[in-house]
Design goal:
Elements lengths: L1 H9 L8 H28 L2 H7 L2 H27 L4 H29 L6 H8 L4 H31 L1
Helix pairs in contact: 1-2, 2-4, 3-5, 4-5
Length: 167
């Protein structure tokens, strides 16, 4: 979706200006989603039964639903482009929302899988010590700094694209 956004934005939001690029993005995205889904199914089937049960347990079920729903949103949004082959801002926003849903859901599921593989009781004392250290103010400062720098990069790119169109 990142490349598709770049294609859409570089064309001045003119929908369908580069139909070949739009169609190529759609083909690559749908192919990638099929491969990713097959790899995920293979990975889950290769897990031990106990670990697999954790991924569908009530505490993790909603994250699995969110991840699969995100995948479905992406497939549906990309598939509509096969008929129309135009990238629109609305379609790209929907695709991006599906990507975020899939990433969020699978991140939690991956963490559940990771926690099942380690003995966390050994870490209780270390976590208690780390909790007493603090550092929230430093974290928030650097988080705000990074958000500002990312925003500034977006402004620079936008100015460059605007200037490029004026030439």
């Amino acid at each position: 979706s990142i490349v598709a956004w770049q294609v859409w934005y570089a064309n001045g939001h003119e929908e369908g200006k580069l139909r070949h690029a739009d169609l190529s993005c759609t083909r690559v995205a749908l192919g990638g989603l099929v491969v990713a889904a097959m790899a995920a199914i293979w990975y889950v089937l290769s897990l031990d039964t106990d670990v697999r049960a954790l991924l569908v347990a009530p505490s993790a079920r909603w994250y699995l639903v969110v991840a699969v729903a995100g995948l479905a949103v992406q497939v549906a949004a990309w598939s509509t482009g096969r008929k129309d082959d135009r990238l629109t801002g609305r379609r790209l926003t929907l695709i991006s929302a599906g990507v975020l849903m899939t990433i969020g859901g699978t991140s939690v599921l991956r963490e559940i899988r990771r926690l099942a593989a380690i003995d966390v009781t050994r870490l209780y004392d270390l976590h208690a010590d780390a909790a007493s250290v603090g550092g929230l103010a430093v974290f928030l400062f650097f988080a705000a700094l990074n958000i500002g720098l990312i925003g500034w990069c977006l402004v620079i790119v936008r100015r460059g694209l605007r200037n490029q169109r004026l030439l």
